[in-house]
Known about the structure:
Elements: E1 2-7, E2 10-12, H1 16-27, E3 33-35, E4 49-50, E5 60-61, H2 62-75, E6 79-81, E7 85-89, E8 95-99, E9 104-107, E10 110-112, E11 116-118, H3 124-128, E12 134-135, H4 138-141, E13 150-153, H5 157-167, E14 173-176, H6 186-194, E15 198-201, E16 204-210, E17 217-222, E18 227-232, E19 235-238, E20 242-244, E21 275-277, H7 289-309
Parallel strand pairs: 1-9, 2-3, 2-10, 3-6, 10-21, 12-19, 13-14, 13-19, 14-15
Antiparallel strand pairs: 4-5, 7-8, 8-9, 11-20, 16-17, 17-18
Helix pairs in contact: 1-2, 1-7, 5-6
Amino acid sequence: MTSATIYPCIIIGSGPAGYTAAIYAARAGLRPLLFQGIEPGGQLMTTTDVENYPGYPDGIQGPQMMDDFRRQAERMGTELRTGHISRCDFSGKPLRLWTLEDEEFLAHSVIIATGASAKWLGLDSEKRLNGSGVSACAVCDGFFFRGKEVAVVGGGDTACEEALYLSKLCPQVHLLVRSDRMRASQVMQERVRKAENIRIYWNTETVEVLGTHQVTGVRVRDKAADREYDISVSGFFVAIGHTPNSEPFRQWLETDEQGYIKTKPGSTHTSVPGVFAAGDVQDKVYRQAVTAAGSGCMAALDAERYLSANGLH
């Protein structure tokens, strides 16, 4: 089934980038249609206290902040849908999108704000304690562990960055590396080795995150010695990477080797005119709610200028 309407702007994604794009697009009179996706609200729906987003001096719960974003986008005139975009065709104009139910939608411009998903170890205890000491973002949650011992799992640049950030807040950081070497760049490895309060555990596999209502430790297995033991920590940071949620668009858009959508420097323009990308689906460096919101604003402004320049608005 095809929607007969050609929307000036369709936004895909309902995190800070998507909702901010919707607010700006609606205020510009673009009558945006926003698809909330499978997980409305994005990664912040699994975050408890958010204390680093401007405008909330006492902090706010992640789900509540996303509800505030949603209500503001709706109040400005955004049409919200719960559907998930599963495929697209950006070979011509108008741009074509299909939901999982195979309903087709047409648009003059599209803003992709589908975010990225953190990779997890797949442990039941990790999932159960997510938000209660388990985190995938040291910059987001490190403040809550100031003065406490924490563990970081991973061997790439992300893990090194997380460990170094936490080393400035915590008296001891336990870096758990699965193999006998890191995948991180030599520069990052040297920085980690020079940090006196980062202890590296080689050939170490996480068996279980310990704690009933809050993380109290982590059980690991030394693969070389084939023995298990516990490390007492208050925080457990998973830093094994993120996966950008760009799969439906990779056939049409230029991406990097990890699947992040490439945008033209200083803009949110992708390799296809009229298609824009904002937030974590194109940002593997900062990955913060406030930077995602900022790029959502940029995408809406870029879309409005594109539509005006082409006589579509």
